Amino acid sequence: MTRISRRGLLKTGAAAGVLAATGMPLMASPKKGGRLRAGLSGANTSDSWDGRTHSDLFMIASASGSVFDCLTATAADGSLVGELAASWEATADAKTWTFNLREGVTFHNGKAFGADDVIASLQMHTAEGAKSAAKPIVSAITDMKKITDHQVQFTLAAGNADFPYLLSDYHILMYPAGQIEEAIANGIGTGLYAVESFEPGVRMVAKRVDSHYKGDSEGFFDEIEYIAINDNTARMNALLTGQVDAINRIDFKTEALLKANPNTRIQEVTGNQHYTLPMLSQTAPFNDLNVRRALKYGINRQELVDKILQGHGQVGNDTPIGPANQYYAGDMEQLEFDADKAKFYMKEAGLTELNVDLSASNAAFEGAVDAAQLYQASAKSAGININVVQEPADGYWSNVWLKKGWCASYWSGRATEDWMFSTAYEAGVPWNDSQWDHPRFQELLYSARAELDSNKRGEQYREMQEILRTDGAVIIPMFANYVQAVNNKIGTPDTIGNLWQMDNARMAERWWMV
Amino acid sequence: MASILLIIAQRLALGLVTLFVVSIVIFTAVNLLPGDFAQLILGQGATPEAVESIRRDLGLDQGPVVRYFQWLAGAVQGDLGNSFAQANFASFAGSDTGSGLSSVAGQIAPRFENTMFLAGVTAMIAVPVAITLGVLAALFRNSVFDRATNILTLSSISSPEFFLAYILILYLAVQNQILPSLSLVNDDMTFLERVRMTLLPALTLTLVVTAHMMRMTRAAIINLLASPYIEMARLKGLSPMRVIVKHALPNALAPIINVIALNLAYLITGVVVVEVVFGYTGIGQLFVDSVKIRDIPVVQACCLIFAAAYILLNLTADIMSILSNPRLRHPK
To answer: Tens of pLDDT along B203-255?
Structure first.
């Protein structure tokens, strides 16, 4: 039997694997049958089966995780696999992509799946008036052509080697063409589970489809029931009393109680979710590279992981690329607290003293204000005076983030490097929260995007992470783990996905009843 | 009898005025909170253009006075408007959800039913228990039983609701798995399953409301025990139990009914914390969620329901105490 210790795995940085905190035996073979009852947070009364609006776990697990399929999917180990697409290929410039669709797939209402459905489903995101979160992805497609009933060709405005990855986004679900309204109203997809009942913000029940293209290797439960429990304590109680078999988002404060319970076990994975302290790099004093470097050495990252995350995380290295990313440079030299280096860079900047305001609120992340105060204490010994400004949580994202010179923030991370960088680090994009505009970085971003050679891409992404580590204007002290729990009735595979909570929200497909 | 009808009409008219004032107060209060729906729903993604476009879609770009009167015009015609969350969602997706939940009324109706069910179950337990305990405490006043009942009920009313809820969960759901800790009710359940699911929150609420009713019953009865007609009854040789139930209780009904009505109103309006703790999908939880995102139409509707519950139950209490008192029933 293989045993993996959580700490050991974190240290090696090879954390794209499962962290079996209780030291559970990792080998077990899945078995069919049973009903999965999961208590999940992130449900709203405004939820629906429209993938364009999905933003939180409950609907992601219900839609892309069980009832609907995308063209591609990210496997638990982070590799890209086909879901409704069987295979795909690109021209050398990564501009034209041909997707071969799976044959013999039907929607839950009996309609056969084909090229028309793909085109109609993608067009939903660019339709007039629709404000889809996946619009940037789909609007990069200049032309969609149906070649045969089971082959589609996409032409992109510019080469993008990540294109198949982007199509695994949980917003881009496949709907039956011509019946989209109905499919949104009743939840008609091609997934392993067909909807039995759905009350927005309350409950979703779905039944396993009898014969499914995924065969018997996935989707072991006869039935699944997702119950909306937004309150942390209520979710914990429900697991302890056996009313549900699995819950997401464990409160670190009460985690010890769950650990002590012999009937439950905790799953913990380090993914791409990270907490940040972005500085506006075009405004003084943060436009001075030496000031930024002094600040990078003035923070004690390990202390933040220990005290704010209570050990449930990993120190960051000022790059947003995390262990769940393909080209994560985990072996770069780690930035550590070093008062002498901080003082050195202060001197380089011609300063003997530095006074800066750091705006923080727990709206950014739980414990942001405490984190800012810890930073204040460690930076003081390097002659940096951080004035922690406690901002109100209401309106934080409108009034503080992107506006104040230095503040606290968070990102849940993205599946690919390009996606993350072009969301928050490309010059001029609206969410570039550090006003980052670095010529070499920008050049690498564009060349890596169209590079199909994985080795070359890896080198380019490595250099970009290196640039952010040494020069970047965002301090990323920590990556926060996804912590969830199941009871002993549930069997889980060796590798748990770390892109999203609950095994990439695919527990209905991957877990089973013991 | 005509005078009672007149009283009812007068009180109902006053109630409408009260509701109007309540709606203004709530509207102003929600508008005074920092941040509006557009900013809160967008969170980190609140770019100025996105905020502007949501405000435009929902009419939030108009002044508060205009918005209030638009809402009022709809409300007096029985249209409580559309929930911001749903309206925003529809404009987001470019199509309706098809769930029929977009109107405030459609969203509140099933939740209100659940809240009323919980209040009903609680009342069925709490009212008989409180009155029985009150009568017994009056009967055995200053005995060990009386003191123990008083201490127990007073300490339960003095504890915060969530604390009582967690104590009950600990003993009745975690250590002895008798009742479910999560009150998941849905339409497929039989009546008995539903009652079972609702029992823990109902017990919590019972602990909260019993003390008030029980002590009022006790005090009202003890107050009467000194009156001459009770002494007469005793001298006739009636048993203490009979004296209290037959002679004292009917005359003590008015204050008791008043307190019961107030507590029933509390069962509808004060369940917010209990609903959240037990994950019960009632109106209280909807109310909390809506305040969080400043969904003004839903907040308004919830508050009006709460206010109406108070007004109607108070009115019922007054009518009942008139009816229970012959002197008020037949004024000279």
So the answer is: 999 999 999 999 999 999 998 888 999 999 999 999 988 888 888 888 888 88
Q: 3-state DSSP call for residue A111?
A: coil
DSSP element (H, E) containing A368: helix A368-380
Percent of chain A with pLDDT over 70: 95
Query: What is the radius of gyration, based on Cα positions, of chain B?
Result: 24
What sign has the CA pseudo-torsion A498, A502, A506, A508?
positive
Q: Are A97 and A90 in contact (CB under 8 A)?
A: yes
Give CA–CA dist A509/A62, Å, rounded: 11
Q: Report CB contact under 8 Å: A397, B184.
A: no
Q: Are A427 and A437 in contact (CB under 8 A)?
A: yes
Q: Cβ contacts of residue A469 below 8 Å, gap of 6+?
A: A317, A318, A319, A332, A333, A335
Select from A37, A44, A45, A243 the residue whose CB has the most chain B CBs within 10 Å, as the one to mutate to test that interface.
A45
Q: Which residues have CB under 8 Å from A350's CB, separation 6+?
A: none
Record the tokens describing residue A392, joined without a space: 């109100």
Domains and CATH numbers, chain B: 1-102+294-332 (no CATH), 110-292 (1.10.3720.10)
Alpha carbon distance B250, A360 (integer Å):
62
- Is the CB of B182 less than 8 angstroms away from the CB of A237? yes
Query: Hey, CA dihedral for B198, B200, B203, B209, is it positive or negative?
Result: negative
Could you identify the residue written with the tokens 């409108």? A398
Q: CA B255, CA B217: separation in Å to the nearest integer?
A: 8
Least Cα separation, residue A267 to chain B (angstroms)? 22
Can you give the C-alpha Rg of chain A in angstroms? 23
Which domains, and CATH codes, for chain A? 31-67+191-263+488-514 (3.40.190.10), 69-180 (3.90.76.10), 272-480 (3.10.105.10)
Q: Which of A46, A129, A234 sits opposite B278 (nearest CB)?
A: A234
For residue B330, give the DSSP letter: S
> ipTM of the predicted structure?
0.81
Q: Count residue pairs from A and B with Cβ separation < 8 A.
A: 130
- B161-198 pLDDT, tens per residue? 999 999 999 999 888 888 888 888 887 788 999 999 99
In whole angstroms, what is the distance from residue A72 CA to residue A167 CA?
Answer: 6
Are A32 and A228 within 8 A, CB to CB? Answer: no
pLDDT band for position A4 (cuts 50, 70, 90): very low
Contact (Cβ atoms closer than 8 angstroms) between residue A132 and residue A171:
yes
DSSP state of B91: H
Which class for A458: exposed (0-12), middle (13-18), buried (19 or more C-beta within 10 A)?
middle
Report CB contact under 8 Å: A181, B50.
Answer: no
Cβ neighbours around A212 below 10 Å, total = 17
Which runs of consecutive H residues, i.e. helices, occur in A98-150? Answer: 115-123, 135-139
Chain A within 8 Å of B86 (Cβ-Cβ)?
Answer: yes
Question: Whole-structure pTM over 0.90, yes or no?
Answer: no
